[in-house]
Amino acid sequence: MTKKLWGGRFKKEVNREFFEFQKSIGYDYKLAEEDILHSMIHVVVLRKSDILSPAEEKRLLAALEEVNKEIKEGIRENRYRPVAGAEDIHTDIQNRVEHKVGTLAAKLHALRSRNDQVVFDEKYYCLRAAQDIRALLLNLLGNLLFLMKKYPEQPFVGYTHTQRAQAILFRHYLGAFFHMFERDNEQLKRFHHNVFLYIGAGALAGSHLRREDYNKAIKELISQGLGFEKIQSVENSLDNVSNRDFIIEFMSILSVVQMHLSRLAEDLILYSTQEFNFVDLPEEFCTGSSLMPHKKNPDFLELIRGYTGMIYGNLVAVLTTMKGLPLTYDRDMQLNKKPLFSSVETIKDELKILPEFLKKLKLNNDVIARALEAKSLYATELAEFLVCNKQVPFRDAHTLVGKMIRYAEDKGKQIDSLSDAELKKFCPSLTRGIIKTVMNPRYAIASKKSISHKNPRIRS
Questions:
Q1: 104 — phi, psi (to 5°)?
Q2: What is the mean pLDDT of residues 59-80?
Q3: Which phi-psi region, left, alpha or beta, contains residue 206 (left: φ > 0; alpha: ψ -120 to 50)?
Q4: Going by C-beta distance under 8 Å and a sequence separation of 6 or more, which residues neighbour residue 203?
Q5: Which H/E stretch holds residue 357?
Q6: Full-prediction pTM beyond 0.85?
Q7: Domain edges within the chain
């Protein structure tokens, strides 16, 4: 029979419907590894405080190792089932340990609270997830660089207000997303440095166990695996058990990552339409229509765009849950786990697929070249040429080039087909030779001296 971690003062059995309503084992089993690590640290500290003998410490640590292996294998093979009646992962682990070591398991929970356990578990989960997502982002950055090198001198159309604006390099366009994801990587790196692990708050008021013993055990069992020294003494135990700022910060960063993913997805959806046809999406990541045989739908990109609302909603859900909670721990906090897991798992899935998607993306160079023939794309370059080489005041240059474009449109011509006589009506120093020199993608791109034309580099 499953034992609860509480209940001595209760005479009545918990209402069955209420028990099912309040239990969290259906999702907090994802914190099993983190919770077992917490228990192992706690066992080491109990031994240092002579609450456990060396033999008892050894038996409990061995049992926890076995439970950890069983649960990990069960989750990996989709056959994990909690002990019947377990309300949360803490109870499930406790009962599994008891099954292995008998009454000795009763000492495992000495001088600790689930309030302290869960904040440790969630911090450790966030730290590990941040590491995983950083690794995936670095892979994505590498594949963006791959595309930049694949198309090193390919001109592309740059847009503002979804209207054609100026000629750019395709790799410069990709570089904008490279820098977005690089900033995300740096944000996760700072988050990883700024979140510290702590045990010893008890339910809220602290514990008889020594803080230095906990810190030493954390350092020995966990910190090296995280790659940083993650121990810092918490000044206030009430703040520790009630703090979920780290979850909100982490989910805020993930929301920005998702925003960047969604912007990239939207651009590629737009550029792959027949109306643009600048890019050809890899078939392996598209689907067809159940009715229309010709369709090739960008479902992967659309799902990235669609998941953005869910990930934003996850952040708002946690913020809303926390906004009015009295100190210290309240059961409302249980509900931050589902949104956290949802955001982490969704972004991991997206980042696992997107690099391979990008690697197989192809440009339709002929279509892009035809779009770049539109001389209005180079109106700015012509105005700047007149300013820098013919000493025309910019406002005048801006006006006369605008009038030339309108004149050519009204005549149904391109600017470069206007005669010298027609051009000189707008500016005496203009010739068709100047127009042909200036109003093309090679000149437009080469004339930009205020920017770096080098590919960015990945920072670890």
A1: -60, -30
A2: 94
A3: left
A4: 113, 115, 116, 241, 328, 329
A5: helix 337-359
A6: yes
A7: 16-110, 115-208+222-369, 373-446
User: What's the farthest any 2 CA atoms get from each other in the chain?
Assistant: 102
CATH topology of domain 115-208+222-369: Fumarase C; Chain A, domain 2 (1.20.200)
Helix ranges, 170-290 (H) = 170-194, 211-218, 224-226, 237-242, 245-272
* Closest of 391, 390, 314 to residue 345, by C-alpha: 314
Residues forming the active site: 161, 289
Query: What is the Cα–Cα distance from 424 to 431, expressed in whole angstroms?
Result: 7
As a whole number of Å, the end-to-end CA separation of the chain is: 50
pLDDT tens digit sequence for 360-386: 999 999 999 999 999 999 999 999 999
Beta-carbon contacts of residue 130 (< 8 Å; ≥ 6 apart): 188, 191, 192, 250
- Are the C-beta atoms of residues 67 and 96 closer than 8 Å to each other? yes
Per-residue pLDDT tens over the stretch 382-428: 999 999 999 999 999 999 999 999 999 999 988 989 999 999 999 99
Strand stretches in 11-131, DSSP E: none
Asked if the 16-110 domain carries CATH number 3.20.20.80, the reply is no
